[in-house]
Amino acid sequence: MLHIVNGDCAIEALKDSGIEGDFLSWLDVLHDGPVPEGLSLEELSEVRADFIADCDWAVLEKAKNAFQKRDIVFRKCHEYDEVVLWNSFELFDQLHIMQLLDGFAQTRDNFQHLSVIFIDDYLGRVSIESLPQWLEKRESVSKKQLVLGQLGWKAFTAQTPELMFELAQQDTSVLPFLQSGLLRLFEEFPAEGCGLTRTEHCILDKVRGGVSQLVRLFSAVQAEEPVHFMGDWSFWKRVRGLVEAPQPLLEVEGDVPFYEPPKTPFPDQVFRKFEVGLTGLGIEVLDNVVDWHAHNPRTFWIGGIHLHPGNDWRWNAERGKFIINELSPL
To answer: From start to end of 46-99, where are the E strands?
Structure first.
């Protein structure tokens, strides 16, 4: 039996619970960086490794090796009598299950029996004692789930958000957490008007509300998320963008330039002292007086969508729809 989970911590928990078998960590922050359409698993892993290295989250060779080892195990799933997908309710896991189901649907001879476990909690927070009981609740993956996984992956990797939006309006209950995950992903597109994503808006709002110590900012923003999905590396990447933009929205006080904190020790003594405040432009953008992109045209990816001044998709949360910003500078 092969268990596919969302990270190394989950593997340790399954092992500690006495669950037997082999384990595969499907660890990729798919909500960040390019996930372009039409690539094989191995080709996409090359793209993802480059992105992770560009973010300084890992040395390129180490990132490539990790993906290669993962992909080799995936291609050998047919050697196991059963493959079990452990799926938590967070966005992080919803993107994983779409990729996995799409991969299995394309190569149906790559598995003997495929099962799934849907957990309405964080896998790392489930008690170790209950994990064997969750395993007993696993269900065989249905044809409808395979088809929906394929449709979801096609939509996520498409060059525009229309397919994702259409999918979110449909009945996706066979993948019970997919719809809520997609709706949360939509909020990471720049908002119509101010140009901030939900996370960026929350960062600025927390700073204006008195969270001036950077060391407290991640937990303060996470507290506003009904379902956490973003890790600290992704979060500090967003803070860096607000601080280091040509016309920044945040400014760090002191003589030491901002840097993303190391994993260990966290926080180090310098980072612990960082104080942050809004710039004048930050206040105007947060108040929806000006559009951040008018001052700082930027480019980034969400799935297969390359957002840039000529392809400026915005999310209007009040109306629940996407628009293309025709006023974006070209």
So the answer is: 83-88
pTM of the model as a whole = 0.94
Q: Does domain 2-178 have CATH number 3.30.450?
A: no
- Which amino acid, residue 79? E
* Residue extents of the structural domains in the chain: 2-178, 198-324
Q: What are the counts of helices (DSSP H) followed by strands (DSSP E) for the chain?
A: 14, 12
CB neighbours of residue 235 within 10 Å:
17
Paired sense of beta strands 275-278 and 300-303, if any: unpaired
Segments of the chain assigned E as strands: 2-5, 22-25, 33-34, 83-88, 114-119, 139-140, 250-253, 275-278, 300-303, 305-307, 313-316, 321-324
Element (H, E) at 123: none
Q: Give the single-character DSSP code of 78.
A: G
User: pLDDT (tens digit, 9 = 90+) per residue, 111-123?
Assistant: 899 999 999 999 8
By residue count, the chain amounts to 330
For the sheet containing 83-88, what is the strand order? 22-25, 2-5, 83-88, 114-119, 139-140
Query: Which residues of the chain are modeled with pLDDT < 50?
Result: 328-330
